[in-house]
Amino acid sequence: MLSLSGTVVDPDGNGLPGATIMIGSLGIVSNVAGRFQLENLCPGNYLIEVKFMGFEDYSERIILSFSRQLTLRLNPSRIELKEVAVYGEIAATGMTNSSLTIADANLDRVKGKTLGEGLTALPGVNAIQSGPAIFKPVIHGLHSQRILILNNGIRQEGQQWGIEHAPEIDPYVASELSVVKGAEAVRYGADAMGGVVIINTPKLDHNKNFGGELNTGFMSNNRMGVISGTFEGGFGENSNWSWRLQGTGKKGGDFSAPNYVLSNTGVKELNFSGAIGFTDSGKGLEIYTSSFNTEIGILRAAHTGNLTDLENSIKNNEPWYIAPFTFDINNPRQQINHQLLKVKAHKHVGNLGKINFLYGGQYNQRKEYDVRRGGLNERPALFMKLLSNVLDVSLDHEHVLHSGSIGINATYKYNINETGETGVRPLVPDYTQFATGLFIIEKMRKANWLLEVGARYDFQFLEVRTFTFSRTLVKPSFNFHYFSGTLGASRYFSQSVRLNNHISFSMRPPHVSELYSEGLHHGTAAIEEGLMRVGGEVLTDQDLILKEASGKWISTLQITGKKLSADFSVYANLINNYVFLSPTGSRLTIRGYFPVWAYQQTDALLAGADAFVQWSVSKKFQYTGKLSYIYGSDLSRNDVLIFIPPVNITNSIGYQTNLGELEDFFVRISVPIVYEQFRAPITVYPSEIPDYTGDQIYDIAPAPPGYTLINMEAGFKLPLKNQHLALSLAGENLTNKVYRNYMNRLRYFADDTGRNFIIRLTYNFNSHN
Amino acid sequence: MNKPNTLVSRWLLRFFFSTVLFATMLLVSCSDDPEPANEEELITTLTLTLTSSTGSAITMTFRDLDGDGLNPPVFTYSPQAPGTSAALLEANTAYTGSIELLNESETPAEDITEEIEEEADEHLFCFTVSSALNIVYAYDDEDDDGLPVGLKTNWETGDASTGTITIVLRHQPGVKTGTCPGGGETDIEVKFNVVIQ
């Protein structure tokens, strides 16, 4: 006989006493702490329904195959703007990995920002920036090829090799942004070595009437306006079909640092998505399509010619080009389009379990325009097209004391450069890649323990089409075989305290960009050479390729109490044959000297700790604190690693109450403190590069000093025709602090953005929230 | 579960399966071999010619046929100072200077000088003479805005000395003011060795 216990909580994690919980025909009322327990249940499929005055009814279908603990989070029947952290969900899905989520009010607070910037709200997650509008997520010091982005269940296949390439996703599609900080390579393959970013869209519900949400936002710093709308509904009472349409438009001009305009940093974005779904008992189908289109200006002064230019830019305190504010976007700029079509279906098949089928087709087009000569400004200097097909089939099975999943993934990628259009030798060559993986994951429950074990085998075929210096076509092809494994254990000390330990081992062959890059990378003003491009030759021998192998351990203590919720993680990631770019010298060209950076491999260690604490001091006051620290080391060369985020701590205090007509009035002050990166690489200024003979990794400018910012936010809700209009005003960098961020590549050229006020208006009508 | 739904879902599934197949076939069939890129912006060769009033011409050439590639550039001086890689100039002599730019990776070689003349209002040559070298220069051309360009110059040597002349071509669309280095990017930076005898 099984037991089912849990806690009914409000979005703040406070227990709700007296809530009615119905499980099948059984009913129970939660105790003072919001807890409940049901004994003597048979394994099976149950519908849980929770009712509590002042909150929306909650229902969820669960499969009970072993005794479980659930955290049932109720949403207030009015839309509330409270700080929410959804730590409790993890208990329900039984994950031994470490994961954090931004949802509800926390998601509202990052609306209007890019995906990468929004994710930095989570401890342990940072971003590498290439200006105020390009954010690339970094999880525990790893990014690009080592982070998987799951966009509505589909792996995002974009040009993720460049650190100036941000994820091509509209964050307005999301109802939840999650980050898994341990490796999930077993389920998703090698690109989840460093963690997974999960963008969840709201579930389609055919029982819904027409509803939706309208969001608008205005930002003072770059005079940006955003408008986003979602509409959804069913096809009538007897239909099992439902639909959703969503769109976002965004236009902003140049950002400003406290003392000057950051010229040519404007942004334009126009996105659409649509979904149609079918649900019935035991089966479901969802078809989702999205289109992401953006144009982003790159700071004019960040475009440099040779080392002399770079030296002058760094040594000047101000960018050399400052013009009055404009909405115009000129070269250098990026123009990116990403189209996605997803088909997802599932069916319960007798005793076998649930079969999931997922297909995704994606087309990614990236054009980068440079400041060019001879009337070439209208033609991109980089033009890449990436087509990819992803197919995932899995079978989830649940038995009395264990559950698990077995599945197969296949991806087919075809990447080409339009060199006829660019008239520039491509940095990353054309390639075709076919990869397939087979995985199995099993979870076992024993007393207060949840154990997880998984294994995966991958095969990858890669054909590269590149040229030697004498313009001869070379087509090396490879067959890679590699494995990954995972072991996890979760110990529950009480209903609100548990300790997760997760160990994972994963392997990946280097990406095409790491193997065969060749030429001038305009984004970094350096000549880059891949691992298989030694001495100007194109190597084709597969035996020369060493796979990167990572072993990561992460331990997380989670507390999800009534007044206090907290999450403490420590981790260590040892990476064998870690691929990275390292300086190897400089090359004299007609444009003067350029630094040469070659991809190399070493053994690296990334270790650190994250902490998150949320404490309800009283009914009205709440404290939130977060901290993250990362130690990065190149073990074989006894050196530091570049672009490792410095220590950062954020403290915030919130106050909330009802002010007459204005519901949920709140004020919050938060103070992020970012320290200097004391383990930064040595500094070799550009003018010193031609004479630099060391093999230590260097940076072209010292790490900027630490800084403290002050951010404030206030908001309330206005009742409007049985609905609510939520309004909030946020101020960022209120003291107009002049600072530079180590993780922003624009720090070489300009200060970071100055004071910024954001007004957000949200109108919700019968929507999912 | 009613019948039309089954039909619709079946139809949709079939449609998408066929789309997948079609897309995959499309991809496989279009994997043609790429053509090598034609580097249209490349400048391989810079020649500074100094002609004295007596008509004798001195040339200094920088040539790098593979662009950013691994092969190092080649410097040629004519006449060459004995025992050193440097151009030989006469002391206390006036010269008229002209710069020629070529893309010799193409056949026939593309004349980039014309391009610079056409976009003269976006370009400026900057000259830096090392302090020990006794030579002075002046611009002898201007763009439509009356600002110097530097394709044509006048030079005058002093007493015997050795040193370097650095030629920098600044690309300054919209920001040209006629002062060096000014805003913009460097398109060319070449340093020539010079002996004045």
Note the total helix count of chain A. Answer: 7
Major pleated sheet of chain A: 22 strands, antiparallel, barrel
Oligomer: heterodimer
Enumerate the spans of chain A where pLDDT stays under 50 for 5 or more consecutive residues: 78-93
Please work out how many helical segments of chain B DSSP would assign: 2
Radius of gyration of chain A: 26 Å
Helix/strand/pairing category of chain B: alpha+beta
At the third CATH level, what is the topology name of the largest domain in chain A? Maltoporin, Chain A
Strand fraction of chain B equals 35-45%
Structural class of chain A: mainly beta
Rg of chain B is 28 Å
**Count of distinct strands of chain B:** 11
* Total domain units of chain A: 2
Distance between the termini of chain B: 100 Å
Our estimate of the beta-strand percent of chain A is over 45%
Task: Describe the 3D structure.
The complex is a heterodimer of chains A (769) and B (197). With 769 residues, chain A is mainly beta. Chain A folds into 2 domains: 1-77, Sandwich (Immunoglobulin-like); 198-765, TonB-dependent receptor, beta-barrel domain (Maltoporin, Chain A, Beta Barrel). Chain A has a 22-stranded antiparallel beta barrel. The longest helix of chain A is centred in the middle third of the chain and has 9 residues, at 307-315. The radius of gyration of chain A is 26 Å and the shape is globular. Chain A starts with a strand and ends with a strand. Chain B is α+β, with helices and mostly antiparallel strands and 197 residues long. Chain B folds into 2 domains: 1-32; 45-196, no CATH class. Chain B has 2 helices and 11 strands, in the order αββββββαβββββ. In chain B, strands 1, 2, 3, 5, 6, 8 and 9 form a 7-stranded antiparallel sheet that branches. Chain B has a 4-stranded mixed sheet with strand order 4-11-10-7, with no helix packed on it. The longest helix of chain B is centred in the N-terminal third of the chain and has 27 residues, at 3-29. The N and C termini of chain B lie far apart (100 Å). Classes of the chains: A mainly beta (769), B alpha+beta (197). The interface between A and B is large, with 64 and 55 residues.
